[in-house]
Structures are given as C-alpha cells and as structure tokens.
UniProtKB/TrEMBL annotation:
Originating organism: Coffea arabica (Arabian coffee)
Sequence ranges of the PPR repeats: 90-124, 193-227, 294-328, 395-429
Pfam families: DYW_deaminase (PF14432), E_motif (PF20431), PPR (PF01535), PPR_2 (PF13041)
Xref: PROSITE patterns: PPR
InterPro entries: DYW_dom (IPR032867), E_motif (IPR046848), PPR_At4g14850-like_plant (IPR046960), PPR_rpt (IPR002885), TPR-like_helical_dom_sf (IPR011990)
NCBIfam families reported in the protein's UniProt record: PPR (TIGR00756)
Protein name: Pentatricopeptide repeat-containing protein At1g08070, chloroplastic-like
Domain DYW: 610-702
Amino acid sequence: MAFTLPDFPAKTIATKTTTILQVPDNPKTLILEKCRTTRDLNQVHAHLIKTRLLHNPNVANPLLESAALLLPNPSINYALNIFRDLEKPDSAAYNAMIRGLTLKQSSNEAILFFRQMIEHLVKPDKFSFSSVLKACSRLKALMEGQQIHAQIFKCQWSCKHEELVNNALVYMYASCGEMVLARRVFDGMSERSTITWNSMFSGYVKSGFWEEVTRLFREMLDMEVQFDGVTLISVLTACRKLGDLELGQWIDDYVEVNGLMGNANLVTSLFDMYAKCGCVDAARRLFDRMPRKDVVAWSAMIAGYSQANRGKDALSLFHEMQKANVEPNEVTMVTVLSSCALLGALETGKWVHSYIKKKKWKLTVTLGTALVDFYAKCGCVDSAVEVFQEMPSTNVLSWTALIQGLASNGQGIRAMEYYSLMQQQNIAPNDVTFIGVLCACSHAGLVDQGWAFFTSMTRDFGFEPRIEHCGCMVDILGRAGRIEEAYNFIKSMTTKPNAVVWRTLLASCRFHKNVEIAEESLKQVVRLEPAHAGDYILLSNVYASVGRLEDALRVRSQMKEIGVKKSPGCSLIELDGVIHEFLAEDSLHPDLEDIYTAIDHIMKRIKLAGYVPNTAEGRLDAEEDGKEASISHHSEKLAIAFGLLKTTPGATIRISKNLRICTDCHNAAKLISTVFDRVLVIRDRNRFHHFVGGTCSCNDFW
DNA sequence: GTAGGGTTAG
C-alpha cells in the first residue's frame, strides 16, 4: 500500500520480514509491504513512535489499515490499540476500522464504530457509508441499514449521488430481501455499472425471485448494458430453477462465442444448469471439457447425476474424482450419500460415514440429515436414529428425514413419537413432514390418526393438502380395507387426482379383492397416463384373486393388443461395495452365465422346499411361457442375487428394486432366507424389508 | 463491490 509522508528521513527501515521501502523517484512515498505478522507491525509501530511520526495521520492511518485489513484475526486488537492511541481519529481512521471489522466477520462492532464516529462528529464519507452498509448486508440488519440510508439522504454533500454508496445500498437491501427498496435505489441512480446490476441480480437470486432475474436480464439486453460473467452466473441459477433451457442455451452460445469458457465458475454454472434442466449428458460433455476441475465442479456434476436418479453414474464419477486426487468436501459427501441412498449402496455410504469420522468433520445439519436419510433408505433404522441423536443441531429437514425413514421401515408408531418430540422442541413441521407423518399412519394402520393429522395439517398449520397428502390418505384407507371410503375421498378431492392416486387405490383393490372399484381405477389410470404394464397386471391379479381367471387372461391379452410396454424392471445388487445393475431381459451382463446356473440351482432348491408360486402372476407366467414352473420377474431377481451370494461366501447381498414387491416375491424371499440361512434385504421403492431365517422384520404390509 | 455445487416427499 502506498502513502505519502511529508518529512520522513530518507532511509529504509527493515525488520526480518517487513520493509518500509522508500520509492527512489519519490522520496515522499513509502511502501509498507509484507507486514504479515503482529511482530512486524510491532517493529514498525515502535519505530514510528520513536521518530514521532505516529502523530501524523498520513503515517498512522496506513499503519492502522495495515493492521485492520492485512493481518489475520488477532491483529484486530492490535489495530484497536493503534486506534485508541490516536489523538483525533479522522474519517480515514474510522473507515479502516469499519472495513477491518467487517472483513473479520465482526460486523456488529463495525456498526458500533460507525455510531461512535457520528457521535464524535466525524463526518462520514462515501467510504464510511459503503463499508458500514456492507456490515449491514452481512448481518441482514435492515433497520440499521435504513437509518444509514436516512443519513445519506440527509447529507448535504454529494454522497447520495456516489455510485459506490448507491451500490452498497442496493446490495444492502438486496441482502435483506427487500427487493422493492433495492429497486427504488437502483431506479434512482443516474449511472449504473455492471456491478450495480449484479447486486440486483444477487438479491433476486437470494430471494428466489427467478422470473425477476430473467426479466431483468432481458431488460439489460434491451438497454444494451454491458454484462459480465458474474451476471451470467446469476441468470444461469435462475434458468436452472425455472427450467428455462432456451435462455440457458443462449448463454452457452454466448460464452462459447465470446471465449469465456476459461471462466471455471461460469462453466460450472453452465453445466449445472444443463444437468438440472434434465440434460445430464450435455452437462457431462461440458464438464469433460474443463481443463481443471475443482471440488465444486466435481460436486456439481455428481449432484447432477444424483438428482437425475442416476446414482450409479454419480458414484462412479465420485471414484474418478478420488483418482484425480481432488479432496471431497462436505457438499461432495452430501451428494454422494444421497446417491448411496438412491441405490441402497450401504457399504459405500458407510465408508463415507467413517471418512467423515476419520477427518473429524463437524456433523452439520445438512451432513447429518444426509446420513440419517441414507441409513433410513438403506433400512438401517437404528443407525439413522443414532446419527440423528448425535447431531448437535437439527432442523425441520432432519426431523422429516427421520420420521419418513422410520415410517417407511415399518416403524410408524416410533415415527409418530418423533413427531410429537419435534413439536415439544418447537420445530415447526412443513408440508413434507406431513407426508412422512401420514405415511407412518398408513404403515401402522392408524386410520383415525391419519384423518386427525390430515385435518390438523390445514387447520393448525395452514398447509393445503397437496396431491401427495391425498395419495397418503387413499393409501391409509385402502390398506385398511376401506376401499369405498377411499374411492369417495378421491371423488371429493379439490385437487385433481393423478395416476399415482388411482394406482394406489388399484393396488388396495388387489389386496382386498374389490373388482368393481379396481375396474374403475384402471380406467382412470389409463386415462391419465399412457399405458403402464403394472396397472393392467394389478387388475388382472384382482380378477385372478377372486377366481375370475378368464377375465384375468383377457386383461393380459388386451395388454398385448394395445401394445402396453413393460418398462424394463431394474434391480440393483450391492456386492462388497460394488453396485451391479440388472435390467430385465439383460442378456449382456457379464455374470449372466453364472447367474443362470445359479437360478437353476435356486429353482431346484425352491422346488425341493415345496415352494409353489401361488399368485396369479406366477400361474399366468407359467401358462404364457408354456413352461411348467417359470419364475416371475421378481423371483428371478432374487435368484440372481442368491446366485451371487452362493458364489461369494460370506458376502452380504442387498437387492434394491424400483418395483413394488408382489406377494410372490415376498414368499420367495422368506423361503430363500430360510434355505440359505442368510439375512436378506429387499427394497420396495423406499422401503426395506429384512428377512432373517424366513421371517420379515417389517410386518406392517404383509 | 457483485458470482458456481448440497439435505426432507412422490
């Protein structure tokens, strides 16, 4: 930093690491540099006292600034000492302190200094205002900010026209979420720089006013105002939230044409936008083009896969990241954990947990919630609860994850205990919490409680029931066998029922053998969503369950006529930390030959144990294929898993399914866990079923 | 002075 010095002896003071250098062509300018430790400052300070130069504000202020701004934390006290020694601190001295304190996250003290400055009748200048406003922005201290705004307004001198001051005002209001006030200052400015515009953008982004961001950007383009990379990053954030791929692509072209691809932050925003707009592969192509990828870029791409439900790609990218020697951080691990939760990849997630412990990372709310969710989705309820209890602080998301986790693992009662505990701790539930709570009621078979929560949600908390809540109610009533009531509930819904709601009812009809409402439900499902094989199978099974085999077969052939596509069933098997993915009719899988041998083996064992596929599905498959005992899709997957289990002694097998488990599958699992004397875990959507020696630990459904 | 990645539901 340079400063002017009236009468300083023309010589150089040198300490071990500090030099006050005299610039040869201007003997009055000295450069204070490399003042990086308190000791250095001490020596210079002492010298200035000795030479009586400290009384000269031109010398003292740069020293103060150096102490307040350059040095790490303890030196702020040192700066305070220098400040207190000043006979009559001027505005520059105050500014140095305010800036220094704001920089060191002591924004409260910065504002106090500003107050003191006013009390001592020291006239604030544009730097004072912009610094103290920055402190207000940090603290989101709207009231103080407005008081300062009033002072600026009262100023007789030109501060209120200073761009620096107005930028700080815009940014202060934007940080406080007061976008109307920010806009008012913005509109009143005669000159606006790119930074002014960017402050507006950052405010709209912070408040989540995504439409305003793109609107303002189009305004900027119309007015032909220069924008920069920072602008584009804000606009890209809005694009990804709005799913505005068109504008996003325009920015991509602009970045390409104007040679901005070197801006790594901008490129990260760009591919992140693509990923969140559903173009994960386009995102990956951009990501691959980045010459140097930092931890944010890696995490963003992993998150892109994870949020697109491509957990396997997410985890393999994480392994690549490790090979590239990029240290993961908390955000990386949160996304990795959510990928593990998607896949039911217990071993990998556990490794992440031990990594976190080894590195002694703080269990933040986000990290803890990700762990709770991961353990719960993998069926390890006790570990989920354990992590939850270790968390130093929790929020509504953590509680919701736990409640949902307990509910989906068949512990509905316990889930509701945690809901009341949550209320005792005065943590307000949100609408998602109620999905968990209603889910708990459905799994625990608590119809009256379910109704009570459904009513309370709107009456006591003001959440209008969303389609998901209604779906839960249908599930609660349907599972309890109150099919008519569920049907009437759907009819009375204010929101239009979707295919999921009708499908839920259809599944209940299957369980409780209600032909009439099943027929109506299928009609509605087909009307709302392009034909889905599972829906026809459900109806066919309803017919079969009441002995109307001809109708069952008719539905099956109807399926073929209409050409209903069977979505490829997909199973994921984790074997010693590696995820194996099997698609139905997957003939290219490397382990397939072994697997078929294993299936034969399994089938023999199954027959030996007297297992007869006793569901309509099993029978129909057999008839269709012209074989005596063909196995259903679900049993086949089980067989594959057990084939692997058999060839790898001691391995733990986990099967994750994206399909609802049928009774057939359940029985097979029971049987197989007995025959092989192993623990078996099956995932049915987000619920895990544990089989130990032929018994399933969650008997809420079966 | 302004800027990039994350957790709960279906």
